[in-house]
Amino acid sequence: MLPEGTELVEARFSGGHLLTVLLDREDGPVDHEFCSRVAAVIAPAVEAEGYDGPIEASSPGIERPLTRPEHFRRFVGHEAKVRIGEPLDGRRNFTGVIDRTGEDAFVLRLSEGAEVELSFGSVTRANLKEDIYK
Fold first, then answer.
1. Spatial distance between the Cα atoms of 55 and 77, rounded to a whole number of angstroms
2. What H or E segment, with its residue span, contains residue 48?
3. Which of 34, 36, 53, 111 matches a 20 to 30 Å C-alpha distance to 104?
């Protein structure tokens, strides 16, 4: 359904009845024209499933969500904010550089120099934390 080379990063309901789809692509920018084209393709499919509300197609942005293990692998060396479901040593929120990934987990190098290994399954939310002023 999506154009070849297009990745659905995340789909969520924002602001009530608004369906927001975050898209990335391999072969060009995620610009207004591309988003409009994809929204036009998505609309009939979601209408067939009973959804008749507004659809917003957008780039994942600079602080893009990390929703799959492949995203963590792709962004090794980048800083991320990660929230896990069950506390680890009393913490649920971590910020650090994605140092390395494995089959079921990844390692964050925290700003204080420590490393923490987190399983992909424990993550409830993760985003890149890019500093545009670097």
1. 33
2. helix 32-48
3. 111
| Residue pair 105/120 in contact by the 8 Å Cβ criterion | yes
Structure tokens at 16: 């009530």
Q: Per residue of the chain (134 residues), give pLDDT as tens.
A: 788 889 999 998 887 789 999 999 888 889 999 999 999 999 998 999 999 889 999 999 889 999 999 999 999 999 999 999 999 999 999 999 999 999 999 999 998 889 999 999 999 999 999 766 65
Pairing type for strands 123-128 and 115-119 reads unpaired
Please name which of 53, 65, 54, 55 lies closest in space to residue 24, comparing C-alpha atoms: 65
List the CATH code of the domain at 69-128. Answer: 2.30.30.520
Residue with tokens 């975050």: 22
